[in-house]
Design brief:
2 copies of one chain form a homodimer. Chain A is an alpha+beta fold. The first copy, chain A, folds into 2 domains: 6-41, no CATH class; 44-174, Alpha-Beta Complex (Nucleoside Triphosphate Pyrophosphohydrolase). Helices cover 20% and strands 49% of the residues of chain A. The first copy, chain A, contains 3 helices and 10 strands. The first copy, chain A, has helices at 83-95, 147-155, 162-174, and strands at 6-15, 19-27, 33-41, 44-51, 54-62, 67-71, 74-76, 97-109, 118-129, 140-146. In chain A, strands 4, 5, 6, 7, 8, 9 and 10 form a 7-stranded mixed sheet that branches. A 3-stranded antiparallel sheet of chain A has the order 1-2-3, with no helix packed on it. Chain A starts with 5 loop residues before the first strand and ends with a helix. The model of chain A has no long low-confidence stretch (mean pLDDT 97). The interface between A and B is large, with 76 and 76 residues.
Amino acid sequence: MELREKILNKEDIFKGKIIDVKMLDVELPNGKKAKREVVYHNGAVGILAFKEDKVLIVEQYRTPIDDIILEIPAGKLDGDEDSLKCANRELREETGYIANKIDYIGEIVTSAGFCNEIIKLYCATDLEYVGDDRDEDEFLNVKEMPVDELRELIRTGKIIDSKTLSAMCFYDNRK
Amino acid sequence: MELREKILNKEDIFKGKIIDVKMLDVELPNGKKAKREVVYHNGAVGILAFKEDKVLIVEQYRTPIDDIILEIPAGKLDGDEDSLKCANRELREETGYIANKIDYIGEIVTSAGFCNEIIKLYCATDLEYVGDDRDEDEFLNVKEMPVDELRELIRTGKIIDSKTLSAMCFYDNRK
């Protein structure tokens, strides 16, 4: 079956600092026309960082869900920044650690139905503490969590962040 | 450290059929004011459905990334629809199967930094084919994929959908 839509037009709805929103006109495989609401995002990285058998986990308030959640360190690409460079920068800024070894483990599209955000995921090991470099308006706690405890939190529904769960899935399926 | 922001105001930017966008004024833990661009979504479900040792995988075009990807069956909540009812409905509509057993395995926030979308994930087994019930404007192929093949696609970066990877993470950590 033909699956692909043809994008006919993109109309700007909103241009923000973090996201842009556009309304797209598309032609469906059956020739009919449809509208698509699309959120555009510059992309991000996430880092699954191991300090021996502990994972670095960030506790952070997230405005959209008005709640505090646990996530791997992560951050947005700065313009056309290289994603590996961004991963090293965000790890340092948020946790104070630099990684002597950092490997790409996969990428995710967070919400493919309406958003183009791609997060590239890395696995960092052989960590060295050099002190964090957080923005004065960035508020988070860093936890060094045994992997078994992280798995228990996944099992009991306490980890809901999609990049954290996806990173663990990539990690477990690569072993 | 105090992490929580206080939401002071929400201004409507865009009201669409799939998403709304608002600009929020918040007060940071240090008392400073900031703006937050937030995408509001009604929520969705995803279903990891097993037909013996095969997983039902949907091949689908996604406009935001202008590409065809592989995902578990999924769909948006219809208004205030119950998520379990939605899971059964979407499984039937997209794949033609009904599940005699369906269990909640966890929920994810897809992009906690700027979006409130929550996807509730289910594991369906004991499937029975009754014929699909797809909208005439819905184009997708259903594959019955051995779990080992799915893991190989995860390992090699061919599965990028965050709900699919998160569902596999929940499934593997519950066993």
